[in-house]
């Protein structure tokens, strides 16, 4: 089978590479000539563990290629996946669908035979039907069906998520399209992956509902952590006790400085706008969005409070800038709120991230960029952890102490043991855990 993947960004590149691993012939299309040239040389435009070797293997096997020529890619394809960006539109929070509809118009001009046009981008309810209308208006003679196939990839573990997913969701009204997609996903049928066939509208809503619910879990446990601080309870034990309930589950019950990334912020906001347009109340999601925005600001205040109420003239070491580990993604990262707030309060910020430095430099001004974790700590008055990269989990505390002006750590990911930090001579501040709480 042949697939054209329109868009070689995060979703398109990972999905295209994984489909090619299934034995499908995949052509990824992108308008960025420089990106396509790099990909054809085997150079990855994003950081994702295992992606470079997966791409190189399948390029070498002749199953994966990259081009700027959409006509050549679409011609003869069994399915054409739209995997372009749908960022939040400035001013109102709606998803910007201009790239989706632009891709649909180009696909219409390139269709030469029957194909299933599949929307893999995260889009609001009704988008797939508009894609169908766009193609039909441009090419009344075109032979095609439209389907929705949302992605559920977590940055940092996307390949495993694609190859061994919890489920695959496919929305379509066409039996013919259903059969094409069933054949494309046949390797997942063989390992008994649940594959849900539903309507276009339901499929589109599932993705938004899933991400918004996970964002709600994150905000809930963050609020519980704040309550634990007031009551002397341990949020880790609370989360463990909650997560063992099969109706709740353990995942996404880890307190932190707020959610970020390419999905949760924009998807929660887009679903909220969809509900408002439909005349449906969505008070829970309104609160989740507000709580998350406020939390990032409060985390800067927490650092300042740990430093005695003022950081004017002080140096703050920051470990981790990306919104999560194992990615270089800076979109809506808590660091984008916290670092400027520290600077505004008069601090000098020395920062390091294992993969996100290049992106961070574009978004944060006035930061002293450091070579490694320990470089940030030289003459620092406080050390704060914003992202839980593995290399930050076992720092040489003796070395840390010798480098800093004062042994003070503000751990916004709770990766250290308060009792051990106290024994090592550190003033230690974390989220929702009393002094001496076990790890």
Task: Provide key terms for this protein.
6-stranded parallel sheet; 18 helices; 2 domains; Rossmann fold; alpha/beta; 439 residues
Counted up, domains total: 2
How many helices?
18
> Strand content of the residues, in percent?
5-15%
CATH architecture of the largest domain: 3-Layer(aba) Sandwich
> Given this structure, which CATH class of the largest domain is correct?
Alpha Beta
- Can you give the mean pLDDT? 95
Number of strands: 14
End-to-end CA span: 50 Å
Major β-sheet profile: 6 strands, parallel
Structural class: alpha/beta
Low-confidence stretches: none
Query: What global shape is seen?
Result: elongated
CATH topology of the largest domain: Rossmann fold
If you had to describe this structure to a student in words, what would you say it looks like?
- The structure is a single chain.
- The chain has 439 residues and is an alpha/beta fold.
- It folds into 2 domains: 2-198, NAD(P)-binding Rossmann-like Domain (Rossmann fold); 213-429, NAD(P)-binding Rossmann-like Domain (Rossmann fold).
- It has helices spanning 10-21, 33-40, 51-60, 70-74, 98-110, 127-138, 158-163, 175-184, 186-190, 200-231, 235-243, 264-278, 283-306, 335-344, 357-363, 373-376, 397-403, 418-423; strands spanning 2-6, 25-29, 64-67, 79-82, 115-119, 144-148, 168-171, 195-198, 315-319, 348-352, 368-369, 382-385, 408-411, 427-429.
- Strands 3-2-1-4-5-6 form a 6-stranded parallel β-sheet, with helices on both faces. Strands 11-10-9-12-13-14 form a 6-stranded parallel β-sheet. Strands 7-8 form a two-stranded parallel sheet.
- Strand 1, helix 1 and strand 2 form a beta-alpha-beta unit.
- It is elongated, with a radius of gyration of 24 Å.
């Amino acid at each position: 089978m042949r697939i054209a993947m329109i868009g070689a960004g995060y979703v398109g590149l990972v999905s295209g590479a994984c489909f090619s691993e299934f034995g499908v012939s995949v052509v990824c299309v992108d308008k960025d000539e420089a990106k396509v040239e790099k990909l054809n040389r085997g150079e990855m435009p994003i950081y994702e563990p295992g992606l470079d070797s997966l791409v190189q293997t399948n390029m070498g096997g002749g199953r994966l290629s990259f081009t700027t020529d959409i006509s050549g890619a679409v011609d003869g394809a069994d399915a054409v996946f739209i995997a372009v960006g749908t960022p939040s539109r400035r001013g109102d929070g709606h998803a910007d669908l201009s790239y989706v509809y632009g891709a649909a118009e180009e696909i219409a001009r390139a269709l030469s035979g029957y194909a299933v046009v599949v929307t893999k981008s995260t889009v609001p309810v009704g988008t797939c039907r508009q894609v169908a209308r766009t193609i039909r208006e441009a090419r009344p003679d075109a032979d095609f069906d439209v389907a929705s196939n949302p992605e559920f990839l977590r940055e940092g573990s996307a390949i495993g998520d694609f190859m061994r997913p919890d489920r695959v969701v496919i929305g379509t009204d066409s039996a013919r399209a259903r059969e094409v997609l069933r054949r494309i996903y046949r390797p997942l049928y063989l390992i008994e992956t649940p594959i849900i066939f539903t309507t276009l509208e339901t499929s589109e809503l599932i993705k938004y509902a899933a991400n918004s619910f996970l964002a709600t879990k994150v905000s809930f446990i963050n609020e519980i952590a704040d309550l634990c601080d007031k009551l002397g309870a341990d949020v880790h034990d609370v989360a463990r006790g909650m997560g063992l309930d099969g109706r709740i589950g353990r995942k996404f019950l880890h307190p932190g400085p707020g959610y970020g990334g390419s999905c949760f912020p924009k998807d929660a906001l887009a679903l909220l706008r969809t509900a408002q347009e439909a005349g449906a109340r969505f008070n829970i999601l309104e609160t989740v969005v507000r709580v998350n925005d406020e939390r990032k600001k409060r985390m800067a205040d927490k650092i300042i409070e740990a430093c005695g109420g003022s950081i004017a003239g002080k140096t703050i070491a920051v470990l981790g800038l990306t919104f999560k580990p194992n990615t270089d993604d800076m979109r809506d990262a808590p660091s984008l709120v916290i670092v400027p707030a520290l600077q505004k309060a008069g601090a000098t910020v020395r920062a390091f991230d294992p993969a996100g430095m290049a992106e961070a430099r574009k978004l944060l001004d006035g930061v002293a960029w450091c070579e490694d974790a320990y470089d940030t700590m030289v003459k620092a008055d406080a050390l704060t952890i914003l992202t839980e990269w593995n290399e930050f989990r076992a720092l040489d505390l003796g070395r840390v102490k010798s480098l800093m002006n004062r042994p003070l750590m503000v751990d916004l990911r709770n990766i250290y043991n308060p009792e051990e930090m106290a024994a090592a001579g550190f003033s230690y501040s974390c989220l929702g855990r009393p002094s001496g709480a076990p790890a």
